[in-house]
Design goal:
heterodimer; A: mainly beta; seven-stranded mixed beta sheet; B: about 110 residues; five-stranded antiparallel beta sheet; 11 strands
Chain lengths: ~110, ~110
Amino acid sequence: EAGVAQSPRYKIIEKRQSVAFWCNPISGHATLYWYQQILGQGPKLLIQFQNNGVVDDSQLPKDRFSAERLKGVDSTLKIQPAKLEDSAVYLCASSFRDSTDTQYFGPGTRLTVL
Amino acid sequence: RKEVEQDPGPFNVPEGATVAFNCTYSNSASQSFFWYRQDCRKEPKLLMSVYSSGNEDGRFTAQLNRASQYISLLIRDSKLSDSATYLCVVNTGNTGGFKTIFGAGTRLFVKA
């Protein structure tokens, strides 16, 4: 069974530029998560989708971050404009029903903002 | 107070040692709990779920104490390969939606 796919794996941009990340969850998984993990910290949930509806986006900085999950399958996360403090690993995860199920993580996208 | 707190460590232990980590949570309505393992520069992976009655998987034992609002992870007979960061996860909510919170992680180094 294929795991969670993410691209790109690495991205370097300058501050104030825009960037987008893509995630394809495990087939059949209803819930998709985007996390931000800053070095030395645990993953912080940015947004959680169940099918194509948003369950929780309370920690998403909506002035610069946006995410969508069209057709309830793959998802994109965008940052516009990027700030230095956005440098982090962006992890995508999926689970079969909701967050009471095991979350399977993709390899992440390592973003560096210069 | 953070919603989920872990001792960041690092814990440095010799092979064969027993080591225990605790994780405290602030919301008494939290409903499900997990331990994930994260190797350096890798993604987190589920280690085990934490049940009210406690659960054991080989050398690993997880327990939940709802009265004191903490979960624990015990590793017996530590191996070099156990060196990693251990993340506790707490879910709060209901069938309308669950909020997932990860702790900052506890780093473990097992030495030969």
